[in-house]
Amino acid sequence: MEPAYDEKTAIKESFSQEPFDGPMSSSRSWFQKIPKRYIMAFMTFLGFANVYALRVNLSVAIVAMVTNHTTLASDGTEITTVAQFEWDSHIRGLILGSFFYGYILTQLPGGWLAAKIGGKHLFGIGILGTAVLTLLSHPAAHLGPYALISLRVLEGIFEGVTYPCAHAIWSKWAPILERSKLATISFSGSYFGTVVSMPLSAWIANTLGWPWIFYIFGAVAIMWYVAWCLVVSESPVDHLTISRHELDYIQQGLTFRKGGLSSPLPWKQMLTSLPVLAIVVAHFAENWGFYTLLTELPLFLSDVMDYDLYMAGTMAALPYVVMVVMVQVGGQLADLIRKRDILTTTNTRRFFTGWSIHVAGCVHDNRCVHHDPRSSHLLSLPCRRPGRIRLGRLCRQPP
């Protein structure tokens, strides 16, 4: 009987063994010896960082687009930039929310397409399409608010496939007992992208002008797409330089079949399943607060709390700094709990999801943010909740 592979053995032997069925058997670079599932995790991490950078840059850019703001020149002279657009709160709300009109349309089709054509290709196309449309945001804004709204709807359609694609990718790449860890590494890229893009967008608007927010982030996402096409493969079996030991370790217990789904989805059973409905309700509650903060917070801090552009972008990123930390810590903790049989997988899901919602609800009920910058850090407290709720959801992925 062959010995079972564990995580430490697979990592160690990945650095010492020859690649699986690959052409480069005699000399491999250090990069080629890195376990391929971790390269996949890093690339999806960067992918989701781009996803959220492209999504939230408008939340900061619109502050510069519709309000006057003052910057200091190198000699100390104050320079006032006059707002280019006179959009009322209703139009601004439509612009900021329009992304999600398209985003909701491709959630279910995205999962189906990922199973049919592969998560790698659809994930890359989703981000590439959003990046190209982002480059068109500046001219679209000058065509009028409804042109920009239409553009954002299209961006949402492209980005809507990314999360379903990620689940399809990890169904092939993640060993069973590393699933929470690898998935949370990749999904935490969304929080990292938010943390970086919000203050960076404010800095770009102050120094280069708000149109450059869209040009810079769009260009970075296109460069990521080129790297994605060159580095990753659809499944471990298709990878040319993966080690035999890592391939064996990943494939233990995986039941996916190349070529997509082998039987029709049981729609009736899913839609009438109480666990599924409970997950939907929990996810709905999470997204209500999460995306409200994500899209509206910079404008709220500018209009209501009278923050300058850079401070609004920086403070709006604070909740997601907390989320980056909590998701990483929680992902390791969830896998550790299951590996040591402290809790069953079901009870791990219940713990992370239920406890997080309860604590965040208490924080929401008791939080009061006044017109005082010292109290703004309290906005980060509810964002510990989505991180842990998502851990509960990631543990649900089937083996």
From TrEMBL:
- One Pfam family recorded for the sequence: MFS_1
- Any idea what this protein is called? Major facilitator superfamily (MFS) profile domain-containing protein
Residue ranges annotated as transmembrane are 38-66, 94-115, 122-141, 147-170, 182-206, 212-232, 271-290, 310-330
Where is it located? Cell membrane
Q: A GO molecular-function term, please?
A: transmembrane transporter activity
Does the UniProt entry include the keyword Acyltransferase? no
Q: Which organism's genome codes for this protein?
A: Ridgeia piscesae
Protein biosynthesis listed as a keyword: no
Main localisation, per the record? membrane
InterPro entries per the UniProt record, alphabetical: MFS (IPR011701), MFS_dom (IPR020846), MFS_Na/Anion_cotransporter (IPR050382), MFS_trans_sf (IPR036259)
Supply the SUPFAM superfamilies for this chain.
MFS general substrate transporter
What PANTHER family does the record point to?
GH23975P, SOLUTE CARRIER FAMILY 17
- Which UniProt keywords are listed? Cell membrane, Glycoprotein, Membrane, Transmembrane, Transmembrane helix
What membrane topology is given? Multi-pass membrane protein
Where would I find the Major facilitator superfamily (MFS) profile domain in this sequence?
A: 39-399
